[in-house]
Design a protein that fits this description.
Elements lengths: L20 E2 L2 E2 L1 H10 L1 H12 L2 H18 L8 H38 L4 H19 L2 H11 L5 H8 L3 H15 L4
Antiparallel strand pairs: 1-2
Helix pairs in contact: 2-3, 2-4, 3-4, 4-5, 4-6, 6-8, 7-8
Length: 187
């Protein structure tokens, strides 16, 4: 993994572009300057969400990439807020993907046990149902998927989830209800 020194700019500014703000947010050098200015705070912010120092630099790069790619399509009134909101979404998405990978690994272990045992229609149904639920979880909005996995995979209470994510218990309940509704088989 490529780590940048603490005092090195994360993204070098482009010399060819004016740093003046454009109607849809800063130009390239403006975004680079903003990113470099908040790099340490952003790094701490992302680390506080993912709690995995090994992922932080990659997620910072992904954050900048998202900001850079969407700069033409998104009108940005507050570049700093937009930068941190994007970082939050990228970090939460990473957590959700990590949880899904962990769940898939656990299921693969259980699946191998099922394969050793005599195959039955029921074990096939269980595997298909688990795959369907994983597919639904991957399509949930990031926050909803994270809440659902924290509840069902990690066994946290609604209050613990609310405290950890900085949201209300009612919001946690709504996310879980939505995830459960989406996971229900349609007949």
């Amino acid at each position: 993994m490529n780590r940048t020194p603490a005092n090195a700019p994360f993204f070098p500014a482009a010399a060819s572009e004016s740093p003046a703000a454009q109607p849809d947010g800063p130009g390239r050098s403006g975004w680079a300057s903003l990113f470099n200015q908040h790099r340490l705070r952003l790094k701490k912010f992302i680390a506080g969400i993912v709690r995995s120092p090994d992922e932080v630099d990659d997620l910072m790069q992904e954050t900048f990439l998202h900001v850079w790619v969407s700069r033409q399509e998104t009108e940005v009134n507050s570049p700093q807020a937009y930068l941190f909101q994007t970082a939050r979404h990228v970090a939460i998405d990473s957590l959700r993907q990590r949880s899904v990978r962990r769940l898939r690994t656990e299921l693969a272990g259980q699946e191998s046990a099922l394969l050793v045992a005599p195959a039955s229609d029921r074990s096939l149904e269980i595997r298909e149902e688990l795959e369907r639920v994983l597919s639904v979880i991957e399509r949930l909005p990031p926050q909803c998927g994270k809440v659902f996995l924290l509840r069902k995979l990690h066994g946290l209470s609604h209050r613990e989830i609310a405290t950890r994510l900085g949201i209300s218990v009612r919001t946690v309940e709504n996310h879980i209800a939505r995830a459960m509704r989406d996971c229900k088989p349609t007949e």
